[in-house]
Amino acid sequence: MAVILLSASCKDADTHEEPVPAVVKDTATYDSICFSRDILPIFKSNCAIEACHDAITGQEGIVFDTYATFFYKGFVPGNAGKSQVYNAITRSTSRRMPPITTYALDSLQINMIKKWINQGMPENTCRQEVDTNQFAFQAHIYPIIKNYCFGCHNDRSEHLNTIRLQTYEEIRAYALNGRLLGSIRHANGYTSMPQNGAKMDEKYIRRIEKWIQNGAVNN
């Protein structure tokens, strides 16, 4: 996801300077969104990949691998509308990011990013409890896969291998052969996923495990 922020290529971006609002941390007001669980995985899966915005490449000086790097460029904490990154992911033109050659972020991901920016981009603790007894595929499992895995494991990706986690049938196949759970648990003998990153939230792993134990149905 190469987010192009140079003024020559993003003429519609607002480059004004404003005082940066104080970053609020660990405040109950922001319990609905957790940076490490909800925001970072979206950017790591879709943006912080080889030849884009990983720590090695860092196109346009932008890296999306840790909380600190989000403040280097492209965001106005407290104002999504004036944030160049947000404008890039919401464009409908050929200058949309992720690039038009791959898949756009969905409305749930975009709205979550918008809300997080407008809240001041807090690095807040994951206080909102994840109910691991809720594991319906459409409502609970697929959104996790979409945030953590889809950016690389889709039919337009050029960054990994031929493993696809795009459809229910594809996800179910890897769930039933043990590779999905082994990878997200970082178990011995499996390729750890997310690649070059921290493990998925433990409650999400448990939710996926229960879905698999109950037949990995498309419900």
Characterization of this structure:
Helices cover 32% and strands 0% of the residues. The chain has 219 residues and is an all-alpha fold. It has 2 domains: 30-118, no CATH class; 137-213, no CATH class. Helix 1 packs across helix 3 (107-118) and helix 4 crosses helix 7 (202-213). It is globular and about 45 Å long. It starts with 34 loop residues before the first helix and ends in a 6-residue tail after the last helix.
Compact overview of the structure:
By secondary structure, the chain is mainly α. It has helices spanning 35-46, 84-90, 107-118, 137-148, 168-176, 179-184, 202-213.
Question: What attributes characterize this protein structure?
Answer:
single chain; 219 residues; mainly alpha; disordered N terminus
